[in-house]
């Protein structure tokens, strides 16, 4: 079996970190758990990343980047209502097929709030920048209409909340959303 390069191993660590942090959050996840998932020692992990925060930042950045890419790909060449449907459906598929994406997003928000309350702004700056890039990505297909972008992002956060709480697709709380956005926990209807 061929040995992995440092870049390949780093990529493995980021994927494992997204999974582990999605499940346990920043404070509830040990670097030992991440190293174990990747199959490396903790000292090797710290050769790839200087500390736990750097691993979390890489995982958060990856999560935001992949979500942006989903929106950009889905909305390519579309505008208005067509873009809304395409992005909503693509996002619903993303969180249905990879529940870690939703959980990681939620963990990012909780971790940023805790860090900000403690006076640490590094994580918040990165997550806010990533979120602004996400905003900008969906803003373009809405013809730079701030109200449409705000509405879309607000519905996305509602979908996150309902999906995280596991509301079944037939529940009344889903009424008013696109039928395609109705999810059963993590499963698209």
Question: What does it look like?
Answer:
It is a single chain. This protein is mostly helical and 189 residues long. The chain is built from eight helices and two strands, in the order ααααααααββ. The chain has helices at 6-24, 31-38, 42-48, 52-75, 80-97, 99-117, 122-139, 146-165, and strands spanning 183-184, 187-188. The chain has a two-stranded antiparallel sheet with strand order 1-2. A hairpin with a 2-residue loop joins strand 1 (183-184) and strand 2. Helix 1 (6-24) packs across helix 4 and helix 4 (52-75) runs parallel beside helix 7. The longest helix is centred in the middle third of the chain and has 24 residues, at 52-75. The N and C termini lie far apart (41 Å).
Uncertain segments are 182-189
Share in helix: over 70%
Estimated radius of gyration = 18 Å
Beta-strand fraction estimate: under 5%
- Please state the average pLDDT score: 88
Arrangement of strands in the largest sheet: 1-2
H/I helix tally: 8
Shape, per Cα inertia axes: elongated
How many β strands by DSSP? 2
Q: Given the helix and strand composition, which structural class is it?
A: mainly alpha
Distance between the termini: 41 Å
Element string (H = helix, E = strand):
HHHHHHHHEE
Determine the oligomeric state from the structure.
Answer: single chain
Biggest sheet overview? 2 strands, antiparallel
């Amino acid at each position: 079996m061929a040995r992995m390069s440092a870049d390949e191993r780093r990529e493995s660590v980021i994927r494992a970190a997204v999974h582990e942090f999605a499940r346990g959050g920043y404070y509830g996840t040990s670097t030992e758990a991440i190293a174990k998932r990747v199959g490396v020692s903790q000292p090797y992990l710290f050769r790839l990343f200087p500390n736990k925060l750097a691993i979390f930042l890489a995982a958060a950045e990856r999560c935001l980047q992949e979500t942006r890419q989903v929106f950009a790909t889905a909305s390519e060449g579309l505008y208005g209502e067509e873009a809304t449907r395409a992005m909503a459906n693509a996002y619903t598929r993303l969180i249905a097929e990879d529940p870690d994406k939703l959980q990681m997003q939620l963990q990012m928000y909780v971790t940023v709030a805790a860090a900000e309350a403690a006076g640490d702004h590094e994580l918040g700056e990165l997550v806010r920048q990533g979120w602004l890039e996400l905003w900008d990505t969906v803003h373009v297909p809405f013809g730079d209409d701030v109200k449409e972008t705000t509405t879309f992002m607000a519905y996305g956060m509602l979908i996150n909340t309902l999906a995280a709480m596991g509301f079944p697709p037939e529940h009344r709380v889903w009424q008013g959303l696109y039928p395609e956005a109705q999810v059963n926990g993590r499963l698209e209807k």
